[in-house]
Amino acid sequence: MNKAVITAAVTTVVSQFPCTIKRITGYYAGVADAYLQFHAKDEVSATNVPVLSLIILAGERFEYIPNIEMAACIVVVSSTEATYTANATGVTFDCEYDQPPVVQGTAVGDLSTGVDYLEVLAAAGRAKQIIMVNGAGAIRYAQLHKVTYVTLVGGEAPWMVMPVASGGTCIYNFGDDGEGFTALTAHFSTTQATLTDAGLTQHYIKAIVV
Known about the structure:
Distance between the termini: 29 Å
Oligomer: single chain
């Protein structure tokens, strides 16, 4: 179990790697109620959709047990619930979280740049992990296609697919040695059975390859 102890912070990076947030306790000294938000990203911008948004009452202590898995974790104080709006007053808290061993390899993509797809492998190689975060305000489908991006025109059936709620995370793990592909593209879709590209750059995708 890991623990982050934070004093009077508006934005806090708890972990830059996949983790499970187990318990958070603290005190909010603001004069108006606000929201403690959890974002599965490397950094947070205005209007970003959180994985979880919990109310914190002005001048009160709080305790929550989220038990949520995240691709990464930034905790912020927001004046609005549904999306991130920077709050003037920070929060003091203790956050307990589990973090599995970090997957070793070469990173492709990141969790701070908004994208709709990521060409994980443009040629033959091995993928060990793919993290896909849905930053849209509605359910999306995290698809994997065993082709290069330029060959995707829409309507293709994915090799693998998983529904991801708004603000949620999908993590594909392929073991310590990874899995071999001739090419591989990760793509968010508005439909599950086939690829429908919404053309939005509201998602975040990161892969580890060897």
